[in-house]
Specification:
Strand content: under 5%
Order of helices and strands: HEHHEHHHH
Structural class: mainly alpha
Largest sheet: 2 strands, parallel
Distance between the termini: 43 Å
Number of strands: 2
Shape: globular
CATH class: Mainly Alpha
CATH topology: Arc Repressor Mutant, subunit A
Strand order of the largest sheet: 1-2
Number of helices: 7
Radius of gyration: 14 Å
Number of domains: 1
CATH superfamily: Winged helix-like DNA-binding domain superfamily/Winged helix DNA-binding domain
CATH architecture: Orthogonal Bundle
Length: 128
């Protein structure tokens, strides 16, 4: 199955500094796209791309063990992202609340549909 990576990049561009989203969160907003497809699109970004790929983690807040993992953590820490004792992002403190009205309008999605999707995202509790 082929899809337009640009739709993933446009959504990743909507995740602001200081927030993180999971591959699955993004996929839930892109019809016909899976979390793995989001990961594949991000892995194909060209070096030097401005898309903030580092703001995307797995559903538990973990950074995938791959080349670039140390850089991803460094970039996130540089944006003030806190990590729990287990090395995962504190999703309770930094989870992206959802797409901006500008992205929603550009994507031609119904805002109510987007709100319903976002309401299914679970907030993760922080380790104290």
């Amino acid at each position: 199955m082929s899809f337009d990576f640009q739709q993933v990049y446009d959504l990743v561009d909507d995740v602001p500094n200081g927030s993180v989203a999971s591959y699955g969160m993004l996929a839930s907003l892109l019809p016909g796209v899976t979390a793995r497809m989001v990961g594949r699109a991000l892995s194909r970004l060209e070096d030097g791309a401005k898309t903030p790929w580092h703001r995307i983690v797995n559903s538990t807040g973990a950074i995938a063990p791959r080349p670039g993992a140390a850089e991803q953590r460094q970039r996130l820490e540089g944006e003030g992202i806190a990590f729990r004792k287990n090395g995962h992002v504190d999703m309770g403190a930094h989870q992206w609340p959802g797409p901006s009205p500008i992205w929603i309008e550009k994507s031609c999605m119904d805002p109510i549909d987007v709100m319903e999707i976002v309401s299914t995202w679970r907030r993760r509790r922080s380790d104290k």
